[in-house]
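FAQ: What does a ligand-bound record look like?

Like this one, built around ZDP:
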Amino acid sequence: MATAVQFVKMHGLGNDFVVVDCVTHPYNVERLVAAAPFLCDRHFGIGGDGLILVLPGVQGDFRMRIINSDGSEPEMCGNGIRVFAKYLYEHGLTRKTALAVETLAGLIRPELILDGAAIAGVRVDMGEPRLERAEIPMIGPPGRVVDEPLQVGATVYRVTAVSMGNPHAVIFVENTEACPVETLGPKIETHPDFPRKTNVEFAQVVNPGAVKMRVWERGAGITLACGTGACATLVAGVLTGNTERAATITLPGGPLDITWSDEDNHVYMTGPATEVFSGTVEIE
Ligand code: ZDP
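The answer part, i.e. the structure of the complex:
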């Protein structure tokens, strides 16, 4: 029996999501999860890089689940958590401007930046980056993976691996425009050294406070922005001596400000979140 599902279409810098509120509506969550590839399909469905489910929290105020457009479930989503916080506030699910949100990467803390009644942006405490190889996860001996050679076909790339809850392989390049993201991205995503696959960031250092980055996302392909990827890029920039601890990471969809605090070791991300339209869709 088909079910009518209300959704809101939102994005963070063009990284776009179908948002479904399972707090307000008693939808069958597993049926929604199974419908993610259809809902995210740009021709046969609504279209999105992922599906975000708004769920009640137990340890936190709410719980976020994110499903990639291919149906896989990542641990975290940086642009998604900003969108999630905006949704909760503007749709009346909370009056709090500082929230604790449960994710598969632990409690993540977004804070709304208000300009009068409007949300000017969202600042997120993304927690500590995980740098041990086994935490990425990546196959090999103990230690960090910083500027390490990775054989891909006939070519060796130098990668720095960072987990922001989800895995990232950051490669510094001379020019992101010249990068074959659509062909190289999937080869690194599925490289056997990454048992849970990986997101892949191609980063160009403009100066120690400014980086240009293009991304190939695990389970979603090329997207206009990746919040966890921007955080991973800044951390990789610090580990390789390429950047300061605070930098603007400019993605095809626009800039994110990222800071890796030397006080609490947490990564902080600031950027926008936008609602575009809402509607009703039928799922099986
Ligand atoms: O780790 C993954 O499988 C990603 N595709 C999840 C989504 C990450 C995202 N782009 C972000 O902003 O962090 C949404």
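Follow-up question: can I read anything off the structure? Yes, for example: Residues 31 and 115 are 38 Å apart (CA to CA).
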